[in-house]
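Data availability (excerpt). All sequences and predicted token strings are deposited with the supplementary files. A representative entry, Ring-1,2-phenylacetyl-CoA epoxidase subunit PaaA, is shown inline so that the format can be inspected without opening the archive.
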Amino acid sequence: MNSAELTLPATDDAQERYFQELIDRDSRIEPRDWMPAEYRTSLIRQISQHGHSEIIGMQPEANWITRAPSLKRKAILMAKVQDEAGHGLYLYSAAQTLGISRDEMAEQLIAGKARYSSIFNYPALTWADMGAIGWLVDGAAICNQVPLCRASYGPYARAMVRICKEESFHQRQGFEILLELSQGTAAQKEMAQDAVNRWYWPSLMMFGPPDDESPNSAQSMAWKIKRFSNDDLRQRFVDMVVPQAEVLGLTLPDPELAWNEDRGHYDMGEIDWAEFHEVLAGRGPCNAQRMQRRRDAHEDGRWVREAAAAYAEKQAAASLKAAS
Ligand SMILES: [Fe+2]
Ligand SMILES: [Fe+2]
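Structure token line:
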């Protein structure tokens, strides 16, 4: 069923009912459809935060491009970081369809008013971190994002389809880096294990606070933006990575991890929520550095934006002249 098959409403009440009907039928809301103001605001917040995460997320890995151990590794890592830039751009475009401009979003990020995923406030200390980030961070992103391919807002859902395809490549390349290291020398295996030890818990925090402390989740699920709760997604992720860790020959740093026959899932230890809130509040190991780098990049790119705007203006004037 698509929106064209429903009768178009006239009054505000009818519009609201029509919106709800589209949601109930699992149809998509498109940019020109009427939507409640809160639905719009909540999507702008979510999509722009997601876009900011992709953009800031380029930093920990870009840091290793020049130090990648071979030309092949360098090319792969560079392609991955470029993919993340592309994800940021698709998402900013999706958010723009809701009425916010790119400049506003950039401004919010630079001013520290907008959030991005806290995971990128951790440092990438060794080459093995490129493996752990790909495997765990992109892996957690996939668990979070696959259900978003069915989000009720059309432009967001469609952007996620391509993003998810690229994220699975990212996860595989991370896994492959770790596999090679874990089958290498004792020092290489130790480096891989150390990276996994440092990235495992922060990757679990990527799913957000526990369900009973996640105030926006219920509304987001009622609007079919979010399809599964934070804890459900976290569980899925843990169930996915435990057997993968076995293949890698690495351990996960949670002594309480154990298969629970009754639940059909792995039990896990308690997350350090104090650390989660500290990083979220801006006091993680790299928050200040990531923001400074983004501000500098924005400033360094000013001449490009000005040149592009001047060129576009010139082109528009020329085509206007040609038309008259
Ligand atoms: Fe991405
Ligand atoms: Fe990625």
